Model the fold of this input.
Amino acid sequence: MNVRSAKSASVIAELDLLAALLDSRWRIPGTSIRFGLDALVGLVPVLGDAATGIVSAYIVMRARSCGAGKILVARMLVNVLLDTVVGSVPILGSIFDVYFKANNRNIRLLRRHLGKADNGSGQAMRTA
Done:
């Protein structure tokens, strides 16, 4: 494992914890439905969704520093924008937040991207 991939793994672990806190920290008893601070804080009109939108944008910014390309960052920002805009609708927005989970989606996208990048660079090293 090189220094860059070790740094990326550390950042991904940190972002994964943050995304879980925002999107899936708690479970509704008797169900498999999980929710996080995004759904709870989103109940506060305007400020709640603005605050979680800023934290979600931070996740995207850190993903960029780990090597996420422009297309991936754009896709992640669309998820954040959709979550923030639809999430700002009173009550229904919080229900949307429970099911959409933009931050968990973005972490999955980042892991998939970095996994492909590692596999691609490893393949290039083996064939060289």
